[in-house]
Amino acid sequence: MRKYFVTATMVLFTAVSSLAQSTSGVEMADELRSSGKIYVVVAVITIILLALIGYLFSIDRKVKKLEKKN
């Protein structure tokens, strides 16, 4: 019974959220795209993600070295 309730609730929230969305475009994204600044935003996000991935790999290597010592 609980399974059906959760499923019905999820379907209801999905339907409500799809109806709540407006058809107009995103003004900020359109303005950034028209002025060419969207590429700067994409570049900054890419650099941040690459730095985080590199940091995670370096931590992983350090943890593996510590595990091998013990």
UniProtKB/TrEMBL annotation:
Residues 1-20 form the signal peptide. It comes from the Bacteria. Keywords: Membrane, Signal, Transmembrane, Transmembrane helix. The chain crosses the membrane at residues 38-59. This is CcmD family protein.
